[in-house]
Amino acid sequence: MQERGPPPNGTYCQRSRLDFTVRVLQEALRLCPPGPTGTRMATRDVEVAGYRVKAGTMLAFGRMAVQTDPTLWDDPLRFDPDRFSPERDQGRDRWQYVPFGGGPRSCIGDHFAMLEATLALATIVRRVEIESKSADFPLAVPFTMVAAAPIIAKVRLRH
Questions:
Q1: Which pTM does this prediction carry?
Q2: In degrees rounded to 5, what are phi and psi of residue 24?
Q3: Does 7 reside within a domain?
């Protein structure tokens, strides 16, 4: 981990110093969003890819499909936290990365979730090394994204 400095004390100020950790989480959420699909209601009649959609129609969209679309992301299935570096984040459409949804109906807890996840990840990787024992990572989507099978890993305390 690049940011080994003093352990996080759980404050927002500490979280703001964990830029790389935040980018790791953003990239993980891009590839495996907690809610891989979302819904929206059409507010007006519109045509999409040759299909007429009437106002009031409920539409489903795939966050995973958008967040791994090769027309929107270079090498979309590769894990690359630097996609979210300030330099590469410029000009990205706000709707191409929506792990917590977007607009007025986005997840109300997204900022809290990111704060907690950032501090948890920073604390965990500071104390232990985690090595995956398998290159495979099967996914299942019952309602939220979960592993389809146990993920076997070796955890060692850091010295």
A1: 0.76
A2: -60, -45
A3: no
